[in-house]
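Hi R.,

Here's the chain you asked about this morning:
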Amino acid sequence: MLNGGKLEMQFDFFDIPGSIMHFAINDPSAFILGRLKEHHSYTYFHSLRVAHYSLELAKMMGLYRLEQQVLVRSALLHDVGKLFVAREILDKKERLNEEELRILRLHPQFGFEIVQEMVNPGLVDLDVLLYHHENLDGTGYPFGLTGKFLSLPVRIVRLADSFDAMTTVRAYNQPKSLEQAMNELVRWSGEHFDLEVVKIFEQYIYYRSM
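And the predicted structure, written out as tokens:
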């Protein structure tokens, strides 16, 4: 809803559509997601929301239905590497020390290895799992890749992941408002986030907020 030119959150961004829940429960990847839910429930529900935002972006950007399905599955699985990160690290309220940060930043590679072994080729975009923390300007991790190496699905999940992280309660920070989160996405457009994906997501937020 618009109030004085500002966006208000009239709907609950934390709601997860039934279609995403159904997919997560009935998909071949459900076993892995179940393990993730047991290990760290925040990451599980975060992954559902990331899948939802990714799907909405995919629809608005004209991806084919099969591409949408692969993207949703990949978004659901993007953080499964955190199965190998201790809950004490995932829930730590203080700043992570150097070793803890090193372990956390290995989760894309852990997830890549898990899914590569357990999910049939073609059902998931492994680049999404491996590169969802990479930035266009090469400042991301684990490899410091630049934009020319990052596909559209990777760019979509990169944004969806960050938006949800900014707008939900986490152990170590309070959520940003919808307006604050959008300002961050715009601020880092062209450096961390794809400008076109940000513009499309702005449209999605605007129409959902009316």
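The beta strands are 2-3, 6-7.

Let me know if you need anything else.
M.
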